[in-house]
Amino acid sequence: GMVKRLDEALGRMHDAIKSLGLSDDTIVLYTTDHGNHFKTRNSEYKRSCHEASIRLPTAIQGPGFDGGGRLNQLVSLVDLPPTLLDAAGLPIPDSMEGRSILPLAQREDVADWPEEVFVQISEAQVGRAVRTKRWKYCVDAPDKHGSRDPGANVYVEQYLYDLESDPYELQNLVGIDAFRAVADDLRDRLIARMVAAGETAPEIVPAEPRAGGQRATSIDAVRTRYLAWVKNRHASA
């Protein structure tokens, strides 16, 4: 199968590097551009804020990364370029986003490592998300097209998940009053990350309030709520 072929290909590359005497001067990085739902969310495209899309298989081997193990911190694809520069002894430009994970790989104490990762979703939708170790918060721009519009000025809350109690993201908590404070905190974090990435601070429309036992609104309902919000805003202007 695919995993077996991948394992064999990496093994051949590793053997070639070793036979050429390049092991001390070569870093091997394996990763992907997105995850895989593995038929768990058949209605979704590969680009979404759900874990099956944004969690990527990633492994690094070579000088500076020979201690083995697994990182517990949240890291992102934008952290990989500065990581490779750092491992090669090259300066990391101030303009580059992300941080080197080399200190984490070497088990150094990095007290100020970010507590969340930022996700930009395109093509399937114009969406943004922020994920902490426990929470996932995602917003959508209902009037924008993912393959045409890079961003938006207005988003609507779409998902809120408690990943500790709901790792498979089956219970959408968005709009439930008991989690309003959590959503507000994550909204502020998301806006801060968007601004840091060069985007304009957007307006995020809260999800429609609902009782804890009610099913979360569908994306069509989110769009309907957004259009009603736009209409009311224009009427009061």
In words, what does this structure look like?
The protein has two domains: 1-72 and 75-111, no CATH class; 114-237, Arylsulfatase, C-terminal domain (2-Layer Sandwich), CATH 3.30.1120.10. It has six helices and seven strands. It has helices spanning 2-19, 51-54, 80-87, 102-105, 180-196, 219-236; strands spanning 28-30, 59-61, 117-121, 127-131, 135-140, 154-162, 203-205. A five-stranded mixed beta sheet has the order 3-4-5-6-7, sandwiched between helices. Helix 5 (180-196) links the parallel strand 6 (154-162) and strand 7 (203-205). The longest helix is centred in the first third of the chain and has 18 residues, at 2-19. The mean pLDDT is 88.
Residue share in helix: 25-40%
- With strands numbered from the N-terminus, the spatial order across the biggest sheet is 3-4-5-6-7
- The helix/strand order is HEHEHHEEEEHEH
| Biggest sheet architecture | 5 strands, mixed
| Unreliable residue runs | none
Number of strands: 7
> What percent of residues are in strands?
5-15%
Structural class: alpha+beta
Helix run count: 6
Termini Cα gap: 60 Å
**What is the 3D form?**
elongated
User: Would you state the CATH class of the largest domain?
Assistant: Alpha Beta
- Count up the domains: 2
Q: What would CATH call the architecture of the largest domain?
A: 2-Layer Sandwich
| Cα radius of gyration in angstroms | 21 Å
**CATH structural fold name of the largest domain:** Arylsulfatase, C-terminal domain
- The overall average pLDDT, rounded, is 88
